[in-house]
Design brief:
The protein is built from 10 helices and 23 strands. By secondary structure, it is of the alpha/beta class. It folds into 2 domains: 364 residues, no CATH class; 36 residues, no CATH class. α2 packs parallel to α3, α4 packs across α5 and α6 crosses α7.
């Protein structure tokens, strides 16, 4: 082989090698830049006259607005799959309203509804977007609410830009207390049904009759932080399991959820981290039996300032990644309705046939009405569950007020490095107590539309979510 040919072959090898390196380098950068994210926010503050009433809490119509209500959407795409997460500043949202909003969004975007998560923060100072005590103002508001959700979903997708994401956990038990207390024997008055079998009282008053807490707390303040490709903050989705509510009749407020968002946005913008659009979201975790430690709602500024400071510091320390894979699985789980027996039906009819008779409990009449409602209700319902994977982060979406112990077990059984639970998501099926909590009794397990699923429902939900997590994890 002559020298010219050897040199030609050498040059060819070099060209091939450089070409391969260039292709690999381009593929590498392309892979890293696949992840995109977008945000959108809309106002959903109701008009005066819209109902605040639930099944038990009869707050009447709205009289004043303390601060505006919002719906916030975060869209993410890994180059193949789009996921949209929406959190709204309302107490609960019915499955019908959520499905209507998702279908509207599907028509606007073409994204399957199974790739959308819609949840409520569960602020008590906001409408229950469900078919309770509905009047013409309520119906108008519900339609408006669904349209606003569809709008922010569409806009968040349109706003997607190259991004990077990371996550972390803050151990924050400081403000958490299980609100269900086992009380001294013989100290609990009859419940609305006239029974004296309850061992637990919500709030545990009087304090001197407390024996011990009836459950756990989940101390995790979990954060998904998303940045623009240049490192500027784009969005934060936080999750904390707590009831923390303003309960003044007639007043509307996004409560601590809204305060947290405004303050974190101000913190990250004011300290010079970014002049680009940024949005914070606070979602509710496993909080069905959790309240603010001490129950004092007056120090909301101290509470939110502390959380904002912790989260903003965590966002600076998080390791961000541009190569994020998204996986989603949605399943409808069939669960039985725990319907009243013949004795309860007879009791309910007797209560309602004697409306002027003094009862031992202020909610006796309401629970009698609920017993007859459940008697005519369907025997089973499909409960929608979602599992989301964003890189090494797992999220379980549950349609009601799951208790802390169930949230902890879901996390423990997850194969993901970090997992959290978003409650009040995609539907609303009331309280979701564990079998043990059913045995304890108490307000959260008294049978009505806000607590009506079979006793073993949380066990079945946990098992199903564990299977879903395993399947999603194995497909990543």
């Amino acid at each position: 082989m002559n020298e010219i040919m050897k040199i030609s072959i050498l040059i060819l090898h070099i060209i091939v090698a450089l070409s391969v390196m260039l292709i690999q380098k381009c593929s590498f950068f392309s892979k890293e830049e696949n992840f995109k994210a977008g945000i959108a926010i809309a106002d959903v503050t109701p008009k005066v006259g819209v109902s605040l009433s639930g099944i038990l809490q009869k707050y009447g119509a709205i009289k004043e607005v303390l601060d505006p209500l919002k719906v916030r959407a975060l869209a993410m795409n890994d180059g193949k799959t789009t996921l949209i997460m929406v959190v709204g500043d309302v107490c609960v949202i019915s499955g019908e309203i959520i499905e209507k909003a998702k279908l509207l969004a599907f028509k606007k975007t073409g994204i399957p509804t199974s790739q959308m998560l819609v949840a409520a923060t569960h602020t008590h100072a906001a409408p229950r977007v469900a078919d309770w005590n509905v009047n013409e103002f309520d119906e108008e508001y519900y339609n408006f609410f669904a349209e606003q959700i569809a709008g922010v979903i569409q806009k968040s997708i349109e706003n997607m830009v190259p991004a990077q994401a990371g996550f972390g956990i803050i151990n924050k038990p400081d403000y958490l207390q299980n609100r269900r207390w086992i009380m001294k024997s013989g100290t609990i008055p009859p419940n609305p049904f006239g029974d004296t079998t309850d061992q637990v009282v919500m709030g545990g008053h009087p304090i001197e009759n407390r024996v011990k807490s009836a459950g756990q707390v989940d101390p995790d303040l979990t954060v998904l932080s998303i940045q623009y490709a240049n490192g500027s903050p784009l969005a934060v989705l936080a999750n904390y399991g707590i009831h923390y509510g303003i309960n003044e009749p007639g007043s509307v407020s996004a409560d601590y959820f809204g305060q947290f968002c405004y303050k974190l946005e101000s913190e990250l913008i004011s300290n010079g981290q970014s002049n680009l659009p940024f949005m914070a979201i606070m979602s509710n975790g496993a909080s069905g039996d959790i309240e603010n430690l001490g129950g004092d709602r007056n120090d909301i500024d101290v509470f939110t300032d502390d959380l904002v400071n912790e989260v903003s510091q965590l966002c600076l320390a998080i390791k961000y990644n541009k190569d994020i894979k998204i996986n989603i699985k949605e399943v409808d789980l069939l669960l039985a309705v725990d319907k009243p027996d013949s004795n309860r039906i007879e009791w309910a009819k007797n209560v309602l046939s004697n409306p002027n008779k003094d009862s031992e409990h202020k909610w006796t009449t309401v629970f009698a009405q609920e017993a007859l409602f459940l008697n005519d209700f369907q025997d089973s319902v499909k409960v929608r569950l979602q599992v989301l994977a964003i890189g090494d982060l797992g999220i379980a979406a549950l349609p009601g007020e799951v208790f802390a112990e169930t949230g902890i077990l879901i996390k423990r059984n997850s194969p993901y490095k970090t997992t959290f639970v978003i409650s009040h998501a995609n539907e609303w099926h009331g309280y979701l107590p564990s079998p043990q909590q059913h045995l304890y009794g108490g307000m959260e397990v008294w049978r009505r539309r806000a607590s009506y699923l079979e006793v073993n429902s949380t066990t079945k939900i946990r098992n199903k979510l564990t299977d879903m997590f395993s399947e999603v994890y194995s497909n990543q």
